[in-house]
Amino acid sequence: MTTQIPASLSRRKILLGAAGATAAMAGSRVMFLAAAAQSGLEVRTRAGLAFQTTVAITIAGGDARRLDQALDACFAGIRAVEQASSVYKPGSDVSRLNRDGRLTGPDPHVLTLLRYACSLSKATGGSYDPTVQPLWDIWAAHHARAERPSETVLRQTLRLVDWTGITISEDEISFDRPGMAVTLNSINQGYAADVVMDILAQHEITDAFVDTGECGASGHHPEGRFWRLGVPAPRDTSQLAFVIDPFRQFASTSGDYGTFFSPDFRDHHIFDPQTGYSPQEWSSITVTAPSGLIADGLSTALFVLDPANARRLLAGEPHCTARFFGKDGRECAGMA
After folding, report:
1. pLDDT value at position 193?
2. Backbone angles phi and psi of 305, in degrees to 5
3. Alpha-carbon gap, residue 46 to 59, rounded angstroms
4. Out of 66, 68, 142, 270, which residue is the most buried by the measure of CB atoms under 10 Å away?
């Protein structure tokens, strides 16, 4: 069975970068291209649909043909990650695993993602858990009927949520009980940004801004400065909470406002595997990290943790930073 997004819900699109919508951060597109021309650079921006959202890549360099070839390879890479890891595509590895309870010959992308997810589950004592997909299914089904799931329904569903019930090998992934299901939605977009950056490096392209739903940047903007990344305020997304400047790593934001089941953001797409409900501590957490996979996973894992455990997890992640916003939308001092 393919997971569907109810019409009233939308896939999160939280970070505002400098890729296809450069005008938001650096003036008009005409100015952008003029700056590139003055620097003797060719610029290419390409956008498409993946992961239930818009993805975009902007790259600059001296060889237009190389740029176009690189973009072809990058979008093929994005499609490969999505096809392997999506819960929305019936033929994906993840969909087949969830349907059958076992998957032979798993795609290398799925192995990488699921192994990282389980390592993060271990590091958080199970507060982060890739097997929360049954909770999503229950909440989405009840939301479609304008209901909340009962305590009884949640208790029954939580019996299926247990990352230790996954067995992973190069040849097979399996569950130890019927009805279990995984979701890699909390990490596959960040991982896709890593894949794109690796492809660009293979094509010797160093000036790039990547937006796969999570963002990454390398090198310089065609104006000669570093890239910038704006992060919306969680309680007024028409405003920026802050700008990362310079932006030259990867960043991911988890927010209660991206996909939600109640207008007050009490119930949303991030679940506490211990209770079946959404965590109530945070409205938004943005993580910067050396890789998109780490940034994406950490932003979700931190969201489920209380302040003390969030600080402890972050302290164990070298070269990572985070900015935390409480449920009232105000930034929490002392958490970074």
Report:
1. 98
2. -90, 155
3. 9
4. 270
Residue 91 corresponds to which tokens in the numbers above?
């033929």
d(CA 313, CA 225): 33
Could you tell me the two tokens for 184?
């890699």
Structure tokens at 253: 């934001």
Question: Is the pTM higher than 0.85?
Answer: yes
What is each CA distance from 173 to 92, 163, 166, 292, in whole angstroms? 14, 12, 7, 24
**Number of Cβ within a 10 Å radius of residue 147:** 12
Rounded distance between C-alpha atoms, residue 268 and residue 281, angstroms: 13
Residues 6+ apart with CB under 8 A from 27: none
pLDDT for residue 258: 83
Please compute the mean of the pLDDT values over residues 131-139 and round it to a whole number: 97
Question: What does the alpha-carbon distance between residue 60 and residue 195 come to, in Å, rounded to a whole number?
Answer: 18
Whether residue 14 is predicted with pLDDT greater than 60 in this model: the reply is: no
Would the pLDDT of 180 be above 90?
yes
- pLDDT band with cut points at 50, 70 and 90 for residue 116: very high
